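retry 2 of 3: previous attempt timed out while embedding NDP. Reduced batch size to 1 and resubmitted. Inputs unchanged:
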Amino acid sequence: MLLENKCAIVTGGSRGIGAGIAVSLARQGADVVINYWGKTDTGYGRDGAAQAVVAEIERLGRSAIALEGDVADPATGPALVDAAVERFGKVDILAANAGICPFHGFLDMPVDLMRKVFGVNMEGAFLVSQAVANRMVEQGHGGAIVATSSISALVGGEFQSHYTPTKAGVHSLMQSVAIALGPHGIRCNSVMPGAILTDMNRESLSDPDKDAYFRKRIPLGRYGEPEDVGDVVAFLASDMARYVTGASVIVDGGMYVNLQ
Ligand SMILES: NC(=O)C1=CN([C@@H]2O[C@H](COP(=O)(O)OP(=O)(O)OC[C@H]3O[C@@H](n4cnc5c(N)ncnc54)[C@H](OP(=O)(O)O)[C@@H]3O)[C@@H](O)[C@H]2O)C=CC1
Ligand SMILES: C[C@H](O)[C@@H]1OC(=O)[C@H](O)[C@@H]1O
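retry 2 succeeded.
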């Protein structure tokens, strides 16, 4: 196991990729604090999902707790750190994963929607990373932060003009904090998933033309599963990646490079 006796915080860990990350980290021996939002204002929030992930982690023989909180609220990061320290005594790993993508056109984008997506995806990743990093510096034994960016950091999306800049921003955030935190032994990287079938894009990918286009474009021939991403996060969080910081790993079955 790669992460025995480690404590991880996973934001947006109740569903989709975050749930996959939480389970992958637990499979490698980590105990996990799962953050989630639990409200339905995104249109696809599901109460009770976080408890199901806790139960799955417990079946793997590890411990987990779930804590509700909006990552865009500056109080959430410190609250997650406090919960991790109270229950597990420390924080070794952060997966800054929470994100939303309510598809919308550019020309009539409501300013509130744009600010909401920027707030959760960008400010949320910044604020939680800052809170966790301060605790890791205080602890004095290093750590690992892995943010969920996207291939959307590298390519645009007609209905994602409020979203793709946040994914580029999260990647850039990890590059800068890798420099700031390297001297403290804290490594900071991002993963760039491609099309992972989750609640975020289930409706969009149910369009038969889009579905056929995506499937054709993915050389490995299938959509990603949350644990396809989770296992890469576990690697980046582990000592196997001890000399990797400021880096980004594309996890997309080859979709990004398959243009021509
Ligand atoms: N799906 C994909 O193809 C890709 C996704 N990504 C990125 O992966 C990450 C996860 O996406 P995905 O798993 O698909 O999304 P899901 O919609 O399946 O899950 C989103 C998760 O984030 C939580 N969440 C939403 N808003 C907040 C908030 N304000 N504060 C805390 N938690 C919140 C949700 O909690 P709750 O259930 O309580 O609402 C849920 O746990 C995002 O950052 C996304 O940008 C990147 C590339 C591809
Ligand atoms: C939700 C999208 O389908 C998904 O999100 C991403 O970040 C990917 O690039 C896909 O566009």
